[in-house]
Amino acid sequence: MEPDDIQEVYEKVKDKLSYDEFLAAVDAKHEEMGGICTRHAAAMLVAHAMGVPDTTKIKNITAESGNVCFSGKVISVSPVREFSRADGSGGRVANIVVGDETGSVRVALWDDIADLVRIGDIKPGHNLMVKGFAKAGLRGVEINVGRSGGVEHIAGDVNIDMQTRKIDEIKGGLSGVSVTGKLVDAGSVRQFKRKDGSSGNVRNILIGDGTGKMRVVLWEPHTAMELAAGTTYEIVNAYTKENTFSGQVELHVGNQGQVRKSDRKIDYSETMTRIADVEANAAYSVEGHVTGLEQPREFERSDGTKSKVANIYISDDTGRVRVALWGDHADIVGEIDIGSKIQIIDCYAKSGRNSEIELSVGARSRVRVLSR
């Protein structure tokens, strides 16, 4: 039996000759070269002579590879972006991510080739032959496809390496991350100003799986998606960053990533901490009965804006703790009374009056009334 690498080369020319004919041509080429090349190299030379370009696997592409040719499946597609060059002429670019069984790589399609995205000729799931130039990008190697390159649809199905990580396996500094989780909190869209004065949208959501939960930051165009808590979603080609305020690792989904519904069954349940086990300087989820209640009071921040806070106490069978409800969370005191059972998700414990532990319920927290 021939080695797998020889059979792999034959797959590229099998519509042109039989396997026995191919092996005979390889033997002849190997003998012609006087044994100075391997049989695999001889097979590549035979395929090249038959019009098949030299191809490589994605894992072997480096920033120094220069001109490359490889086959892959489209994982994600970003919209076409128009821009002006220094000479005043207009240009177009679309970024796609292509993968094979060895990895994935970002591919920038320029001008006329970018128009293939615009007309719908390149979509996720399409199998392509890509010819372009490899170079170092912001997040690793990327391939530029311009006038001297091109993309072609190919027959057959390219297997891709789409290893889905568990949430507890995700750490900072990663790219090309895929994860499947149940939506815990759909969040809301927030507008912000960029350095150039333009406006953008961002949305923070929470997902969970059997190993934990994590915050996911959605950037445009994903911010406008209709998302339903309790639904399972697959996130593809995301990257991770450490939040400078909380120190926690967050998953970011930009225009090269994807968010889509999944039929996978994900078991996730919130982990509740007993009040007696709460310690300062950490985030917790707790539940208990209301045993103390104060009305909201307004205050003015240092920047002149106004907000409000309400203090309540909750108890479980292990202890009692003071809870500060900030902003809109303070309004919940109108819905509860002494004896009401509530659940607080993602509050932050800190040392308060007389060095006693208190829980702070802010923008990233959620409060659910379980019984009134």
Characterise this structure:
With about 375 residues, the chain is mainly beta. The protein has 4 domains: about 5-50; about 60-155, Nucleic acid-binding proteins (OB fold (Dihydrolipoamide Acetyltransferase, E2P)); about 165-260, Beta Barrel (OB fold (Dihydrolipoamide Acetyltransferase, E2P)); about 275-370, OB fold (Dihydrolipoamide Acetyltransferase, E2P). About 10% of the residues lie in helices and about 45% in strands. The protein contains 4 helices and 22 strands. It has helices at about 5-10, 20-30, 40-50, 115-120; strands spanning about 65-75, 80-85, 90-100, 105-110, 125-135, 140-145, 150-155, 165, 175-185, 190-195, 200-210, 210-220, 230-240, 250-255, 260, 280-295, 295-300, 305-315, 320-325, 340-350, 355-360, 365-370. The strands form 3 sheets. A 5-stranded mixed beta barrel has the order 1-3-4-6-5. A 5-stranded mixed β-barrel has the order 9-11-12-14-13. A 5-stranded mixed β-barrel has the order 16-18-19-21-20. A hairpin with a 6-residue loop joins strand 13 (about 230-240) and strand 14 (about 250-255). Helix 1 runs parallel beside helix 3 and helix 2 packs across helix 3 (about 40-50). The termini are far apart. The model has no long low-confidence stretch (mean pLDDT about 90).
Question: What tags apply to this protein structure?
Answer:
372 residues, 45% strand, OB fold (Dihydrolipoamide Acetyltransferase, E2P), 4 domains, 22 strands, 4 helices, mainly beta, 5-stranded mixed barrel
